[in-house]
Amino acid sequence: MFILDRPRVVPTLFFLLLVGVLFIFRPSFVSAETLVVYSARKEHLIKPVLDQYTKETGVQVKLLTDKAPALFVRLKAEGENTPADLLITVDAGNLWHAAKEGMLLPVNSERLKENVPIHLRDPKGQWVGLSIRARTIVYNSKQVKPSDLSTYEALGEANWKNRLCLRTSKKVYNQSLIAMMISQLGKEKTEAVIQSWIANLATPVFSSDTKVLEAIAAGQCDVGIVNTYYFGRLLRKKTDLPLALYWPNQNGRGVHVNISGAGVTKHSKHQKAAIALLEWFSSESAQNLFADSNLEYPVNPKVNPASEVAAWGRFKQDQSNLSKAGELQKEAIRLMDRMGYK
Ligand code: FE
Question: Which pLDDT score is estimated for 5?
């Protein structure tokens, strides 16, 4: 018998061995879901964060990077068939648009509510901030004393005539800044502020925050408004530039902040896993990975910014809900257009 059945024993043993091996490595076969992230943030900022998530959880993440408008067109076109589970982009104005276009899923997560302050997330849970960027005043430290400065509005006063540099109003960062100003000061006051800024411009508007910084450092103008990470990046390259940051409106509404953020896509096929990734982004272990690579601030108040960023000092931030940046964006664009802010 034994001799007769021997040819069958080998394949049977081999089969049992294979089953055993599959059983031992079962977790990586069964639990390894693959998530797809569409990101308008540069790959070198996001990839290390996603790699860490894969390392911690075994969940694979595929990353597709493109400009925000291109990703929005793609998501719209793909509709229900989209492979995307998560959308990452910068500026609350952009996230608000994605939500309004029906691309994002309302998420009700206690962990997100706990980790992310209320003004940095959508009231309906469709998007949530992952890092904070502060848009503040920068000045030439050889020409200006901090005591000369006070508020964004005061940059329109007569003593700043021919001393102000601004980035173009076509950039969403300025559209959000002005939308938030409209929500706080009203249309008329904001209009007067823009008019007074335009009257004080030393040069035509610039295409980037970095060019604003370079113009101030070169003495073409003395003050401007920029996102702090551009300041940080430029000073890493040229440490001796006569530039310094100023935190305006500290006795009032605070510094204008914006976010990089994310939302689960409406047609995600892995909603639970996508929410888990979003929650992990807001956790203490992931927040520094998210903020530090771009010299931004963590959204989670329990997490400290990188020491290089912390050195710029603490400030009071505007705590009104960033959904206003989207709601009032069109209004802001029209207003800047009327006032001749190019
Ligand atoms: Fe930027």
Answer: 56
